[in-house]
Write a structure and sequence with these properties.
Elements: H1 2-15, E1 18-24, H2 31-41, E2 46-51, H3 58-62, E3 69-73, H4 79-83, H5 87-93, E4 98-101, E5 106-110, H6 115-123, E6 130-137, H7 150-154, E7 177-183, E8 187-189, E9 196-197, H8 212-217, E10 220-224, H9 230-235, H10 237-240, H11 255-264, H12 289-305, H13 310-317, H14 332-346, H15 354-369, H16 373-390, H17 394-410, H18 414-432, H19 437-452, H20 456-473, H21 479-494, H22 500-521, H23 526-545
Parallel strand pairs: 1-2, 1-4, 2-3, 6-10
Antiparallel strand pairs: 4-7, 5-10, 6-7, 8-9
Helix pairs in contact: 12-13, 12-14, 14-15, 15-16, 16-17, 17-18, 17-19, 18-19, 19-20, 19-21, 20-21, 21-22, 21-23, 22-23
Amino acid sequence: MLRLLATLAAASAQNAKLVIVAQFKNEAESLPQWLDHYLTDEGVAAMLLVDDNSTDSWRQAVEPYGARVRVRSGHAHRQVENYNLWLPTLRSEYSDDWVLIVDVDEYAYARRDTLADAVRAILDPGPADSVLVAWKQFGSAGHRRQPKNGTVCGFTTRRRYGGRPYNPPLRGFGLGVGKAFARIRALESLGVHRHRMRNQPMLPVRDRNQTEASLASAAFALNHYPMQSRDWFQRTKMRRGDARSKRGGRGKRTLHHHRAFNKMALHWKTKEGLVRGYACRGTAGFAHVSCLAEQAKILLAEAEENNLDDERMVTRWRRWYACSLCEQKYHGVVRCALGWACWKTYLGRPETDRARIFAISQLGNGLSEANQHEDALSVKETELAILRRVGASEERMLDAQGNIANSYHRLGRLEETLRMRQEVYSGYLELKGGEDEGTLWAAFNYALNLKGLHRFEEVKPLLRRTLPVMRRVLGENDRITLKMRWIYAVALCLDTSATFDDLREAMTMLEETERIARRVFGGAHPLTVKMESDLRAARAALARETP
């Protein structure tokens, strides 16, 4: 009996769904991209919406989604009451699932998987019935009119969390916790920022001890875009009134408040907003290099001044090569420009200084990203020589050898590449074990080289052995996992002994991988573009082999 109950509980966790409840008023222009984010990109099962007496064309916006979007009429200025209109439906149709309350200007996402997958993998098996998710407050990014590339890509400035408790300059728009997931079967009533749960005390509205480091490690995040462009703010929020009461929100419906909020969204020292790199979520990405470099310098200087521990120091170092918003690495000319900026910043330090060693590594990687491979190889060989002179760790030297192998590969020196990558993979495997991220990267590079030399009988066993580990340790949406699946699929296609079933497996894997890459990195990312090309080739090959 106990075994049966455990089996049923496990099955329930695998099938748990996420439902969104929200209220809107005259937001027809914002609804399509918002609905698409949750229903298409994040795998949400249903959107239960309340119309607060809208007078625009909202029906046309929700119609394409059919039964997955349900709308009912609500009462003016009764936000909490309107949410709870859906409570009977939640209990009768979604009792084993989870609910999240969001506004139309809020975009929730999970750090690795889709929102729905993360709910099944993280929240549902866990002991908590209600889980708080942190807000990230975004300003207008200087836009007077709504940007054509959408809310997520268009508005990119936000205020950073500090290293100490944060006192918001604008009441009601602090940082900290924004909304909360709730397990529906334990739910008593819905609220705006928190919910009343059975046998559980009311949760605090905000955690004022939130920091950038804790935000970066959180499994879930919530981008909040309350201001958007000046024109949008004037024609929507300044006209429609507050959602909760007739008197509420008066001070938040003025252009003065719009200006004050945008001032808050700037970094306190640089007076610049945080900007997206090329890998950010959405259909377009961009970066302002001088802003990125200046902020990286300031953050690292603060870390050194405060003598932060290694873990927090690594978070600061990442700002030289990875976006603080989407956490993906920069690429192309942005990565190269930041590499030069990093090297110029720390060039004057002693050879043994770790900032200088880090900087030469970033310069080499940046040159590679800009396809300046001869220069990159020279820089990387210099770096390895420095590491040997200063007595660096075995892991650090393996990392440098791997970077040299990458340059060999891009210069077409494939046999040298293979020899060095095999050494690096063996070294990591012995030093760190099979589940370490460094070992997995080394396995990926080794597999890439074997595929390039058409040594399919060697690469396929390596991939079959490594892929399950990557998916378990790194997650389905991780860049290295996606690349490894892509290599495996392409290896199946290129193998002259491939069967029809092999080609069909390859095409299915490429379709899944390309879809995930497009959602995570965007359509313009080089990885997505390459996968699209290989997918077309796989389809053509399969068509030729189809009986």
